Each structure stands twice: as structure tokens, then as C-alpha cells.
Amino acid sequence: MEFLFNTNVQFFIAAYLVGGIPFGLLLAKKFAGVDIKASGSGSIGATNVLRVVKESNPALAKKLGIATLALDALKGVTVLIVAYFSGVSEATLWAISVLAVIGHCFSPYLNFEGGKGIATGMGVMMFMLPYETLIALVVWGVLAKTLKISSISSLTGVMALLISSFIIHPEMAHAPVVFIVFILYYKHIPNIIRLLKGEEKRVV
């Protein structure tokens, strides 16, 4: 058990455990009295919080959606900031980023189920690759405003981040970025299938 006293290992565990906190589920239960795991898409992310809570309380839905988005983005960044000021290596920071996203998508508190990972992924990427993330957010914002289909705007934004990372930082090791993008696309497989069938719902 000596490995648990290793600083890197402690940050890895913290990233996974903090990343796994299901803020959307907790907020919806606390303030709206609904179980978002049993409604809508079953996801614990901001989009499902907004969709499910809106059915009974549209004003509250927007507030809880924004709060979920912010907290899901911040939970990975929080561990990264602490680790950064503790002087860990860049490789360790990337590992923390990956584990925070894995924690959200496969939460230890929800029998290893979880959300789609977009907010948490964008949060850690904003810390690690700020320029690429800003590009992704612009792409996401434009598509979200025009198409109003969350999965299309999210996945296109993620792909814009990946492509721009190769252009802006051709020298870096892209494996962690590719892995995070893979996880996000994997979690969106049901959405992709619905898109292909023309059944994906708009966010209105």
C-alpha cells in the first residue's frame, strides 16, 4: 500500500473520485425532486437536467442546468490547479485530466455509469489547451444556437478541439487528447445512432 503515499497516485485517485461526483443528479434531486437517471436520456449532465426539470419548472431548469454545467467543468479543473501548484509534471497533469473525465463518464458512485463528459472534458481542456478549447466553444456555441441539437454541437466542438490541437501544438504528444475525445464519442454512441435515424431531440 506504499504506492498510496505517492503524490501522483494521490492526485490520480482524487481526479477520479472528484470527477465522479454526479452534480446534475444531486442538484435535480435536491432542488427539483426528480431523478434524472430515471428520466429523459438518463444522463447526469446539464442537457438532461435542463430537459427533465423543464417539464415541471422551466425557470428552475435553466438555473440547475447552468449550475450543473459549471460544477461539472470545475471539478476536473480543481484537481488540476492543486496538482499544478504542487509542481507535478505535465504528463501527470494529462493523466489527471483523463481520469477526471473517466470519473464523470464512469462514476464510482453510480455503479460506473455516468454522463457524457462534455463539460468535464472542456473544463480540463481549458486548463491544458486553452486556445483549442476556445475554438471548440465557439464552434459549439454557433451550432447550439443554430441547430439546437446538443449532441451535434458538442461532438463537432470536440472534434474542432482535436484537429486544432494538431495545428496549434504539432509537437505535443496527442495521445491524452485523442483518448479523451474517444471517451466522449463512445459515451455519445446512443446519440449518434439517434442522429443517423433522425430521432435526436432538439433542445428548445
UniProtKB/TrEMBL annotation:
It is found in: Cell membrane. GO terms for cellular component: plasma membrane. Pathway: Lipid metabolism; phospholipid metabolism. Coiled coil: none annotated. Keywords: Cell membrane, Lipid biosynthesis, Lipid metabolism, Membrane, Phospholipid biosynthesis, Phospholipid metabolism, Transferase, Transmembrane, Transmembrane helix. Its EC number is 2.3.1.275. GO terms for biological process: phospholipid biosynthetic process. The chain crosses the membrane at residues 12-28, 91-112, 124-143, 155-186. It catalyses: an acyl phosphate + sn-glycerol 3-phosphate = a 1-acyl-sn-glycero-3-phosphate + phosphate. The keyword Cytoplasm does not apply. Probably interacts with PlsX. Catalyzes the transfer of an acyl group from acyl-phosphate (acyl-PO(4)) to glycerol-3-phosphate (G3P) to form lysophosphatidic acid (LPA). This enzyme utilizes acyl-phosphate as fatty acyl donor, but not acyl-CoA or acyl-ACP. Belongs to the PlsY family. This is Glycerol-3-phosphate acyltransferase. It comes from Sulfurimonas aquatica.
